[in-house]
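Final report, results section. Input specification for complex C-07:
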Amino acid sequence: MDESRISELTRLLSALNRAAEALARAAEDFPALRRNTARVKACLRMMELNLGQAGAAVEDDQGRPD
Amino acid sequence: MRDSPYWNPFLETLAPEALRALQLRKFKAILTWAYQRSPFYRDLYRAAGLEPADVRTLEDAARVPKVDKSLLRSAQSGEPFPYGRLLAVPPEEVVEFRQTSGTTGQPVYQADSWSDWEWWSEAWSYILWSQGYRPRDRVFLPFGYNVFVAFWAGHYAAEKIGCEVVPGGVLDTAARVLKIREVRATAMMGTPTYLLNMAQVARDRLDLDPAGLTIEKITCAGEPGASIPSTKRRLEEAWGAKVFDHAGATEIGAWGFECGRQPGGLHVNEAFFLAEVEDLDTGELITGPGRRGKLIITAFDRLAQPCVRFDSKDIVEWAAEPCPCGRTFRLVKGGVLGRADDITKVKGVLLAPSAIEEVVRGFTELADEYEVVVERAGEGDRITLKVELRPGAEAAQEELLARLRDELRLKTNLGYAIEVHPFGALPRYEVKARRFKDLRSRH
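Structure output:
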C-alpha cells in the first residue's frame, strides 16, 4: 500500500480524532455523550494502530474511558 | 466492494525492515508507558539499572528483564485491589476483569481498559478475517461466558467483522449441537477437546452426523490440538469443516493465528506483538529456523496492565519459509509445540505430551480421549497410556496395541504400559483437557 494513501487515511483519522476530542470536552457534564465518546476514542485508537502509528501509548489521551 | 484477503492490507504485508522499525518504535513506547505508569515495572527496571532510553535497537529488548506468571501474581498482592502494583491506569479506567485459570497456583487477575478491550477484539479480527470469516457468516460460540477470557474477544471480533454472532453460553452440549442445526451456523470456536466431544455427543446422543451440519470453519484455541496434524484431521472429518488454530493467553492477548492457507504453522501478529524466541538452556536469542526455544512476548498496545517481555513458556520454532498467503508476519512452524513446564523427563528422556497426542489421534481405531500417567516404579518411572477403542475395533485389539506401542517408541523414545478402557469411560472435558498426570512428586 503506497505511502500517499496511508498519509491521506492518517489525515482523515486525525480530523476524526480532533472532532472526538472537541466532543469529549464539550460533553463533560453530559454522561451519555461523554461515555459514548470514550468508546469512539477507543475505536479511533484502533484505527491509529492499524495505520502503524506508534508511540501513542505514551501520550496522555489514549481513548480510554475518562 | 472488493474483498481484501487481509484485515489490514497495510500492516500485514509491510516489508520486513519497515515492520522491524515499527516494532522498535512500539516497543520503546510500551516500555516507557510501563516504566512511567506501573510501579511494578518501574521497580523491576530500576533494580536492573535499566531506563527506557537504554533501548535503542530491537536487540536491546533482550536486556529488559522478563516477567512471568508468578512474578505478576506476586505483584498483585498489594493495592490497588485486585491488580496491585501492576496496574498502569487509575482503577476507575478498568472496565473488564478476567483471570487466568489458576491451574499453576493463584490466578493472575487481568485488568483491561476500554481501549484494551477494543484491542483484544482487534487482534482477533486479524485472526478471523484471515480464516475467511466474513459478514455473511453466522458464528456459534459454544462456550460458557465467564471470568476466563477464552472466546470473549472472538465474539466481539466476529461482531466487528460484521458476522452474526450466536452465543451458546448456558446450553448443554446436545442443545448446542441442535442450536447449530436450527440456526444453520456456518462457523464456530472452541477448544479441540470440547469440539471433538461435541461431535461425539451429536453422533451418540442425537444420532446426527456433525459433518452434515452447516459448519464450514472452526477456530480453535486453548490447546495446541488444532496444530497437531492428527487432531486437526479428526476435527475436520468430524465436522466437515476447515479447522484453524490460534494462540494467545490472558496475560498476553491473541498473538498468533493460522491463516486460510493452513501453512502448518501460526503467523505472529508482529504489528501488535514482539515475539522473541529464547534457547531453553542458554537464554540465547534464536532468530532463525531449525531450533526450538521459549517464546518471550510483548504486547505493544495493552495499557491497563502491560505485558512486557512475558515468559510465555510456549515452545516454538521459527519457520524457514514465508507463508504463501503473502503476509509478512513470520510463522512459527507447527504452532505451539509444547510448554516449557510440560516437557518433563521420563526414564531420562525428554517427553512433550503433544507428541503422545499426535500418535494417539493418528489411530482411527482409537476414540478421541486418552490419558497419560507417569509414576515412580521402584528406582525408575512407569508411564501408562490409557486409551479407548472405538466401537467395532475390539477384534483387532492386540494387533492395534502392538502398532501403537511401536509408533509411541518411534516418536517419543519411550515404552508404555497401555490400558484399554471401555468406550466412554475416560473423562470428557468441557474446556481444556488435563490428560497428562505426573504423579512422581507425590511419592
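The helical segments of chain A are 3-26, 31-50. The two ends of chain A are 35 Å apart (CA to CA). This concludes the modelling results for the funded period.
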